[in-house]
Amino acid sequence: MAEYLASIYGTEKDKVNCSFYFKIGACRHGDRCSRKHVKPTFSQTILIANMYRNPAHDPSCNMTEEQLQEDFDLFYEDVFTELAKFGEVEEMCVCDNVGDHLVGNVYCQYRYEEDAGNAVESLNNRFYAGRPLYAELSPVTDFREACCRQHEIAECNRGGFCNFMHLKHPNRALRRELEEAQRLTVREKRKETRN
């Protein structure tokens, strides 16, 4: 029996624990969900809820696609650089959904759980763009499972209200630049600890 329960944990067959919360770290029902949201006490992944404000979601926005991408790239660089101060970032994802439980969520997966814990502790005492940050450890371990596959091939008919992540991506050059800068920083830190 225990083996069976372990095999269905966090899946659709699990009638006790919420599979959406397990996969995505958020659930549209929130605290009113009929299933449990098991919050991890340690994790490599953090969630900063509702951090990114996409100007395109404002009906009065008159920015071009290029301006919107530039605005997002500045946000991504700023947040990645700040989060990397806590430890080595393996992946950072920003949701472009419009549903309350996913809108503007930023997920950051660190190499080490300790770094994620330190980030959560520090970020909950900080503000970004004049608003307080709400960070927590997240159960998400595999972003491929959390992302909407239909959105990735431009076929999601649920739009921004989809319950799977619709990610907003920085331009490739920026992503490579940030990853390379982080690699150099990690290499320098390793050299310092050896000496």
Description of the molecule:
It is a single chain. With 195 residues, the protein is of the alpha+beta class. The protein has one domain: RRM (RNA recognition motif) domain (Alpha-Beta Plaits), CATH 3.30.70. The protein is 38% helix and 13% strand. The protein contains seven helices and seven strands. It has helices at residues 2-8, 19-24, 65-83, 113-123, 143-146, 149-152, 172-194, and strands at residues 45-48, 89-95, 106-110, 127-128, 131-132, 135-138, 167-168. The chain has a five-stranded antiparallel beta sheet with strand order 6-1-3-2-7, with helices on one face. Strand 4 and strand 5 (131-132) form a beta hairpin. The termini are far apart. Mean pLDDT is 90; it is low at 4-10.
Short descriptors:
single chain; 195 residues; alpha+beta; five-stranded antiparallel beta sheet; 38% helix; RBD_domain_sf; zinc; Nucleotide-bd_a/b_plait_sf
In short:
With 195 residues, this protein is α+β, with helices and mostly antiparallel strands.
Secondary structure elements and pairings:
Blueprint (H helix, E strand, L loop, with lengths): L1 H7 L10 H6 L20 E4 L16 H19 L5 E7 L10 E5 L2 H11 L3 E2 L2 E2 L2 E4 L4 H4 L2 H4 L14 E2 L3 H23 L1
